[in-house]
Amino acid sequence: MAEVILKNVKKVYPYQETKKKKKGAEEKKTNLQITEEGVLAVQDFNLHIKDKEFIVLVGPSGCGKSTTLRMVAGLEEISGGELYIDGQLVNDVAPKDRDIAMVFQNYALYPHMSVWENMAFPLKLRKTPKEEIAQRVSQAAEILGITQYLDRKPKALSGGQRQRVAIGRAIVREPKVLLMDEPLSNLDAKLRNQMRAEIIKLRQRINTTFIYVTHDQTEAMTLGDRIVIMKDGVIQQIGTPQEVFDHPANLFVAGFIGVPQMNFYDAQLVLDSDGKYAVELDKAHVVLSDVKQANLKKNNVKPGPITLGVRPEHLLLSGAAENMIAGQVEVSEMMGSAVHVHVNACGSDTIIIVQTTELENPAAFSIGSQISFTFSGATAHVFDRETQKNLEA
Q1: 3-state DSSP call for residue 291?
Q2: Contact 9, 71 (CB under 8 A)
Q3: What is the domain extent for residue 304?
Q4: What is the pTM of this model?
Q5: Residue 32 included in any domain
Q6: pLDDT tens-digit series, residues 163-175
Q7: What sign does the CA torsion over 88, 66, 200, 258 have?
Q8: How many domains, in total, are found in the chain?
Q9: 26 and 129 both lie in a single domain
Q10: pLDDT digits over 309-338, tens only?
């Protein structure tokens, strides 16, 4: 029920060794920037979250996503920049006065209290009338499907049920902003899938703004209206799940989003005699699509060495023999509906996804067998080999 705005927000953890450095000295350690002030865990973070939007912060461990969430919650002090919730500057506002609620990774339930008491506790602290407490707890329990567990203690619940109780305790407060810090990471794969669906349903039933942190890009893609991809404390790209999948801003985003990850090759970008851009790799010469042609021309991209990216599901096993890439099968993984074929091609480990319905001869992918593949000009992604940026962006 509120928009959240972060302007040039940063978080610096003091680093005692920096005192020995000359003023202005900088270096790189463990991928995070270290300056005279200390270790920059989050830097130059700018994000405008709309009212009732579901935003997901995603990235590898140590990228600063949980630190950012804790700054919004007030659990971490903001070293620089401004944080607004519902139009109010809250840099120095206490967590209890920010009208936010947070769901933690480890549930953080009181073991000596029943489910009902756990969910009612934040309302009791606010001295909410008993009748209203009963109504809110009952309503939240019904939404989350835990009404039958209200008399149980947390130890008598499964992991998924405990997480529902933790979410219920957060939503009974009817907060303006609901923060969730990797809430599904302690659950097994089946429960994670179920809880993802429950969170999507929950989002439709309560009017609040969600900020969700995860290292799992599948969660990010399925839950978020927009996702924020972070690396080393810096935002790499902000966009809808489809935008970041189809148009990754750089090599990191391209490799992080998508399962299995995108295949990368050292290739050449060339201009044909008719002035069209094409990619050359091994024996393959692939003219790029009209959309990509327009984007590259708009950016005045020059021919030369590039990093080529193609997703495993976009590699093709059919095509003209003189326009194919040769490879040798190293591993073949049967996944049920598809086979993930690992191929050594052009000095890179390549993954090709082949649907089992298209297989005429499964033995063709036995270890050591030779295969050829190619790709279409619409599915190729071209990145600058030095800056690693998408040349179409």
Answers
A1: helix
A2: yes
A3: 264-384
A4: 0.87
A5: yes
A6: 889 999 998 988 9
A7: positive
A8: 2
A9: yes
A10: 999 999 998 766 778 999 999 998 888 888
